[in-house]
Amino acid sequence: MAGRTEYSPIDRRSLSADEAGQSLLSQDEKPFVFNNRSPAQRRYTAAIKAVLFLILLVVHAGLIVLLAKWLASSFLGAHAEYPAEGHDHGGTCLLRDEHTQYTFEGVIPAVYKDPDAEFLMKDPCGRTAAEARARGCRYGMLYGAWLPEACYDEETEENFRKYTNWRFWLQPNRTQELSYEEVAKGEHEYVLVEWQYHQRHCAEMGRRIFTAMSRRGLHTIDSYLSQWAHTDHCAHSVMEVRPTHELGAILWRKFPDCGVVRWKNAK
Length: 267
What we know:
It is elongated, with a radius of gyration of 40 Å. By secondary structure, it is α+β, with helices and mostly antiparallel strands. The termini are far apart. It has seven helices and eight strands. The strands form four sheets. The chain has a two-stranded antiparallel ribbon with strand order 1-8. It has two domains: 36-76; 117-263, no CATH class. The chain has helices at 17-23, 39-75, 129-134, 154-162, 180-183, 195-216, 228-237, and strands at residues 117-121, 138-140, 145-147, 168-169, 177-178, 190-193, 249-252, 258-263.
């Protein structure tokens, strides 16, 4: 019929093979590109990646070993390091020569008199072990003090004694070891103890003063227990991270006053 256009599903234009192929793809699709690398190249690349991975593992393992050694030396170090001075600390030697005798020149003994408080009993146990025994005083191992019955806390002392097998020495090189029973006689001016002893001492001192304040009364507090300086010292010491068995503290013998009447200039 004249003027009629015949329909054809394919345009009469000539299409190349590439154009015909692309026309059948959506706008978002990409033609697949084959990996032209040979099997040998792929094996080589995989081998390089494996070697780099192994090197990375070795480096990480080395860092872990170094960290472990540092932690071991920091927290489980040898017993040869001692503080130079301190409230209840002492020790001056870094050697372990069993034939060397050490002195504590310059180390300040513990202060067991409290000038900031008044007490019912002044020097109730005298100034020597013989005087203390003659006056009926008892030697407490918790802080090395000769005390009259009024200020002696049997319960706290027993808890402290049972905590572990405490050990004592007269020399920083761990020679002249003394038994618990020997030290409990109160004859020695000082003995050396491990850091664990000092930590437990501070913990029990807090319990001791709470017991006095809540149950036993102010008259059971002595002039060592009453000091703010010692309480502050213990508060800081319990936060110190040191080897448990470091021989780093001195237990000084004390002859405190007994029975707090009041604290002076209390703020």
